[in-house]
Amino acid sequence: MVDMGERLAMGTRRFTARSAALGITLTAALLTPLGVAPALAETLVPISGSGSTWAQDAVEQWRAAVYSATGQAMSYAGVGSRGGLGEFARGTMDFAVSEHAFDSEADGEYAIASPPFDFASLPIAAGATSIAYNLRSGDTLVDDLRLSGDTVAKIFTGVITRWDDPAVQAENPQIVMPAQDITPVVRADLSGSTEVFTSWMSTQHEGVWSDYCV
């Protein structure tokens, strides 16, 4: 069986601080130069955050740098964007990192109301969408697959279901495409990555996405 997996997605990642004051403190900590007096650590309270798994590696690097420079202890849990927003809104985390904003008007489980307190939201990182695939042509592992945006959208909406589909073959004349089914693999949880990916399909390939959603 051949798997096609959805990787994490493009978009501005947003850092949400419990208040404007806390946001300034964290931003300053991220930018504080090395050499801050060690005594400063005695006045700092540990802070905790959660959210995006996409941004987790970056947050971990910043966390270590901030601790090294200032003595500020910070923990971060990659529970997903919506999980982080929910924990932040309930007051169990000091900050959250998310690919999207609070949305109380979304359908059902996708709705997340804004917290009942003031907060600041800052863009901290950006990334690109990529599609992972696992494909062989005979005994050869394919490492030069080319897919247009239209073809990708049709694969993930079930219009194109086989690797030897004429559209896929036409975009890859250098490959003898195998007569095999494509098995799209996506995350099952409420993922900011999936949200950004489907947002791209709905705006850039509106007709394909609309037909899929009917």
List the helices and strands and how they pair.
Layout: E1 2-6, E2 11-17, H1 20-31, E3 47-51, H2 56-70, E4 74-77, H3 81-89, E5 95-98, E6 120-127, E7 131-133, E8 136-137, E9 140-141, H4 149-156, H5 166-171, E10 182-185, H6 192-204, H7 206-213
Helix pairs in contact: 6-7
Keywords:
single chain; D-Maltodextrin-Binding Protein, domain 2; 2 domains; 21% strand; disordered N terminus
Entry summary:
The chain is an alpha/beta fold.
Characterization of the model:
By secondary structure, this protein is of the alpha/beta class. The chain folds into two domains: 91 residues, D-Maltodextrin-Binding Protein, domain 2 (3-Layer(aba) Sandwich), CATH 3.40.190.10; 117 residues, 3-Layer(aba) Sandwich (D-Maltodextrin-Binding Protein, domain 2). It is built from seven helices and ten strands. Helix 6 packs across helix 7. The N terminus is likely disordered.
Structure annotation, total helices: 7
Rg, nearest Å? 21 Å
Beta-strand segment tally: 10
Average pLDDT figure: 78
Q: What fold name goes in the CATH topology slot of the largest domain?
A: D-Maltodextrin-Binding Protein, domain 2
**Stretches with pLDDT under 50, minimum 5 residues:** 1-37
Helical/strand content category: alpha/beta
Could you say how many structural domains there are in total?
2
The main sheet orders its strands as 4-3-5-2-6
Distance between the termini: 29 Å
Helix content: 25-40%
Strand residues, percent = 15-25%
So what's the overall shape? elongated
The SSE order reads EEHEHEHEEEEEHHEHH
| Second-tier CATH architecture of the largest domain | 3-Layer(aba) Sandwich
Summarize the biggest pleated sheet: 5 strands, mixed
